[in-house]
Each structure stands twice: as C-alpha cells, then as structure tokens.
Amino acid sequence: MTHSHEHPHAHGHATHAPADFNRAFVIGILLNTVFVGIEAFFGWRINSLALLADAGHNLSDVAGLILAWGGAIAGKRRPDARHTYGWKRASILAAFINAVLLLVAMGSLGWEAAQRLQAPEPTEGWTMMAVAGVGIVVNTATALLFMRGSHGDLNIRGAFLHMAADALVSLGVVVGGALYLWQGWAWLDPVMSLAIAVVIVAGTWSLFKQSTHLLFDGVPDGIDMAAVRQLLLGLPGVRDVHDLHVWAMGTSSTALTAHLVLQDGAVDHSAVLREAEEELGEHFGIHHATLQLEQPAFAQQCALRAGAGCS
C-alpha cells in the first residue's frame, strides 16, 4: 500500500483564532502619542535627560505598537495561491523589529547619558515627578490592555512588556526626582537614564532572542520535541516516527509535519489521525498538523533515499 498524506484538522479544531486587540492598539497608540508630546516638552523645558530619554523610549514604543498592530492584522489575512500559509509570520517579524528598535534606542540613550555624566546639569525635581507620575498611569493602563494575550502570543507579549517596562521606568524617574529634591545631585539624572537603558535592554533581550529563533523556524518555547515524538509513537497502530518538524507559523500558531510508520495495513487511518489531532492540540497547542502515514516497506525505502523527498 502506498503512503497517504492527510491533514488532521477539521470540525472546528484546525486553529484557535487569536484574540482581537484592535481596540487595545488604538487606545494604547493614542495615549502614548499624547504622553510622548507632554514628556518631551517638559523634558526640554527643565533640561531633564531622564524625561527626554523616557519620551524617546515611549516614541519607540508607539512605533512598536504600530508595528505589532500591523503584524497582528497581516497575520489574520487568509491564505491564497501565492501565500499558502497566509501572512502569519508578519507577527514574528513585527516582534523582531520591535526588539531591534528598542535595543537601538537604548544604545543611543546610553551614549547620551554617558556624555551627560561628564558635565551634569541641574533640573526640576517636582516637574520630573509630576510628568513621570502621569507616565505610570498611562503605561500601566496600556499594559493592562495587552496582559491577557501576553502568554500565548509573542507579538502581543512584546507590546505588553514594553508598556510594563515603561511603567517601571516612569516609577524610577519619580524616585530619581525625589532624590534630586532631597540631595540636589545633578549627576542623578544621567545615572537614572543609564539605569533605564539597562532595565529595558534586559527585558527586551529575551524578546529579541525568541523572535530571531522563530524567524529561523525554531521550535517554539514550551514544546518538548521528545515529548511530541513520544506522543506520536503512542498512537494506536504506530510503530515509528521520522522526519518530525515543528515550527511557528506566527506568534500564536504552531505547525507540525511528521511521517508515521504504521504496524500493518489493518490500522484504521482515520482513528490515528483523529487521535493525533486531539492529543497534539490538547497537550502542545498544535492545531495545524500534517501527517504522512506509511507502511514499513515504504518507510524503509524512504530511509534509503535519505532526503530524496522523504523529509
């Protein structure tokens, strides 16, 4: 009997539609755009590098939110004859560009703060605290809009992390302003800016690594390939598994392909595919699996050909 190439994803189990965050993106972009203007104005007026740095960072976050929103919209486009998976990978690309933008912005901030340390300049502590206090409210509110999607979607997680980091940074600026009022340390402003850069780089690095990993078809975090293989081997009538591949189609969807070698011709193909669909979805969140069912004789030929259409 020849091999069969079947797709176990029907009856409403094919995919889990990602949540719609359009409203969250609109509110987040508007709030942060207004706040960037306020923060930049007062940072320039009182000569506070910490405020100007945070305004620059918030501006990069507005760009990041726009990117993430664009990625989310593109990821929902239906497949067609030219893009058979659709545009799901746009969300991974958006997360990657988002991370790169942040890292570049923080490098620029760090350089400016280091220059300012050589010649510290006075600022106004009360204004710093007031403006940064508004920032805490704005960034916390925006982060909460994305919190529910931050665990299952790397793109949404990027937006959430940026807003949460901003809230912490604004809190740091408030503390810095209070210390400046108390002690009058002019060097505190650039030091706070450097601390802001370090905190944000630390939080962004994992997003950069994960998005890069997924761009090169890496196995998504949380999926144990050995456990996936064991699950497939445990299916009724399956004696072996080879050419197993798992990769991210987007930041919220995972695909799998595998060749399953059956024990004999009497195995019920539909039962194998049905159980594979249910188990992969339940245990690993994989809802797009393409399984090739093979008889032992064909699998042996496949092994001998080693890569000639068998992988």
Keywords:
single chain; 311 residues; alpha+beta; Alpha-lytic protease prodomain-like; GMP Synthetase, Chain A, domain 3; 9 helices; disordered N terminus
- CATH-level-2 architecture of the largest domain: Up-down Bundle
CATH class of the largest domain: Mainly Alpha
Low-pLDDT regions: 1-18
Separation of termini?
Answer: 20 Å
Q: Report the strand count.
A: 4
General description of the model:
There is one protein chain. A hairpin with a 2-residue loop joins β2 and β3 (253-262). Helix content is 63%, strand content 11%. Strands 1-4-3-2 form a 4-stranded mixed sheet. α1 (22-46) runs antiparallel to α2 (49-75) and α3 (90-117) packs parallel to α5 (154-183). The chain folds into 2 domains: 22-215, Alpha-lytic protease prodomain-like, CATH 1.20.1510.10; 220-305, 2-Layer Sandwich (GMP Synthetase, Chain A, domain 3). The protein starts with a strand and ends in a 6-residue tail after the last helix. The chain has 9 helices and 4 strands; from the N terminus they run βαααααααββαβα. The chain has 311 residues and is α+β, with helices and mostly antiparallel strands.
